[in-house]
Design goal:
The chain is 37% helix and 12% strand. It folds into two domains: 110 residues, Type I PLP-dependent aspartate aminotransferase-like (Major domain) (Aspartate Aminotransferase, domain 2), CATH 3.40.640.10; 141 residues, Aspartate Aminotransferase, domain 1, CATH 3.90.1150.10. By secondary structure, it is of the alpha+beta class. The protein has a four-stranded antiparallel sheet. Strands 1-4-5 form a three-stranded mixed sheet, covered by helices on one side. A two-stranded antiparallel ribbon has the order 2-3. The longest helix has 19 residues. It is built from nine helices and nine strands. It binds pyridoxal-5'-phosphate. Pyridoxal-5'-phosphate (PLP) binds next to loops.
Length: 258
């Protein structure tokens, strides 16, 4: 989680609506309150690497009834869902087809019943690895604003330099240690190589593709993020590791990181 108290305060002061991307944070909390519920709206992903999954899909949570209706319409071709006759629905806005099917939702409900167990195991696995790396001088861990609320899907840590982080990622991959990500060079999770996004490359004309936007996107310059991400490795935490697999993983990690 981010430093939510500060974010909420700055948003309130500036009159900016806070929208939380809690995609990876189902079951996580900050000072006892669920992530995704601090601002105007929060979103969750249920894709297959998330804490619980529907195979695909997601959810938006909000306590604003007007926003609720707008989101619901947007996800379903703009239907207002006022009655049982879909053909009689009004369409207050143009929407897309982001519907979650009932079959997917049924999988999600079954997964939701396992959430506490999943969190308990992830937290235990993360604690084991973190404790097992704690004495290594080259490794420092990212700060968690509220460690008790961590859903423990990832363990992120820093190495002293970009070169060492990149080398460690290569060495871990060579030893077959999967799920150790170096996001800085990754085409998906960090802006550096999102050329399609910076060019607003789309199958049809985008409403936002106005004068000035491309220049703005091409000019994104975030040196502090670059400096942090350049040194960061991020380990996926799995629910179904056996004690042996966990111990082997720690041995391999220590061999590379020490
Ligand atoms: C923080 C964050 N936001 C958004 C997404 C995208 O979720 P989805 O694939 O369900 O659209 C992800 C998934 O990787 C994520 O981790």
């Amino acid at each position: 989680m981010p430093r939510l108290a500060e974010l909420v305060a700055v948003c309130q002061k500036r009159g900016v609506p806070l929208i939380e991307d809690a995609a990876q944070a189902m079951g996580a909390s900050y000072r006892g309150r669920a992530l995704g519920t601090f601002g105007l709206a929060g979103s969750f992903s249920f894709d297959y690497v998330k804490t619980i999954t529907c195979a695909e899909g997601g959810a938006v949570v909000t306590d604003d009834p007007a926003l609720h209706d707008r989101v619901q319409a947007f996800t379903d071709h703009g239907h207002d869902h006022r009655g049982a006759d879909r053909g009689a629905d009004q369409h207050p806005i143009i929407g897309l087809n982001f519907r979650l099917s009932e079959l997917h939702a049924a999988v999600g409900l079954a997964q939701l019943r396992k959430l506490d167990l999943i969190l308990e195991r992830q937290r235990a696995h993360k604690r084991f690895l973190k404790d097992g790396l704690a004495d290594l001088a080259r490794v420092t861990f990212r700060e968690l604003p509220d460690p008790d609320g961590d859903s423990a899907t990832f363990l992120s840590f820093f190495l002293p330099s970009e070169a060492e982080a990149r080398q460690a990622a290569r060495d871990l991959a060579a030893r077959g240690v999967d799920g150790c990500f170096y996001w800085y060079d990754n085409n998906w999770h960090y802006h550096r190589q999102w050329q399609h996004f910076k060019d607003l490359a789309s199958p049809a004309l985008l409403a936002v593709k106005r004068a000035g936007w491309l220049e703005h996107l091409h000019a994104i310059h975030v040196p502090r993020s670059d400096a942090l991400l350049g040194r960061t490795l991020c380990l996926l935490i799995k629910v179904n590791w056996t004690p042996d697999q966990l111990a082997q993983r720690l041995t391999q990690l220590r061999a590379v990181l020490a």
